Amino acid sequence: MHGWAARVARDWPAFEVVERDGWRLGSAEGVTKRANSALLLDPGADPAGVTAFYRERGTPPCAQVWPGEEEADARLARHGYAVVEPTLVLAREPRERPDAPGTTAVTAAPGAGWLAHGPAGVDVMARILGGTTALYGTAPGGAGRGCAVLSGRTAAVCAMVTAPAARRRGVASALLADLLARAHDEGATDAYLCVVTENTAARRLYEGFGFTEVSRYHNRVLG
């Protein structure tokens, strides 16, 4: 398994994980592709194993494809799997505690404000994050929310959302700074995150905080 794939799977854990037919198959009630996708274990694995697993659970068959897995990518394509959401992995090297406004409510569990702000399935996302040690940030007035999963000296930033009416007002920047500062206080001096390649606004935000590309992947989904 690709090294970054293993880290991402650890920090956004599925409820069910099965290793069979040359794949690591994760399932979490269909909420987010990251927790409901297959990771390659055997370079020669047949995509039919992915199809069968997710059909059994009533969710779209999905596989992550990482650098070096081009042969598996071609097999998935021949089985009708289409490319969905090419994604970048961005990382921030260890550095001093960032300046932060302190306006974000950062807690060790998701509060009512965090749960109220988000897409359908936010309750399942909270359960996914419940399998980790995490910090939950909520912007004033519910204008945004985010999370930082803590693993040793690394924080995995995820679940970042800004309310449409609050965009371009510095909400995401303040929230991210407060999460990184609190994570630093907890011993996490470096960080990483995943962002859809086409999300240029989010990429500009993260690059402004010193995040740079370290890997990338795309999903292959069977319609």
From TrEMBL:
Statement: the UniProt record of this protein carries the keyword Acyltransferase: yes
Cited InterPro entries: Acyl_CoA_acyltransferase, GNAT_dom, Rv0428c-like_C, YpeA/RimI_acetyltransf
Top-level lineage group: Bacteria
A molecular function (GO) term: acyltransferase activity, transferring groups other than amino-acyl groups
Residue ranges annotated for the N-acetyltransferase domain, each copy included: 72-223
Keywords linked to the UniProt accession: Acyltransferase, Transferase
Entries under Gene3D superfamilies matching the protein: 3.40.630.30
Keyword Nucleotidyltransferase: no
Entries under PANTHER family matching the protein: ACETYLTRANSFERASE
Name of protein: Acetyltransferase (GNAT) family protein
Lineage summary: Bacteria, Bacillati, Actinomycetota, Actinomycetes, Streptosporangiales
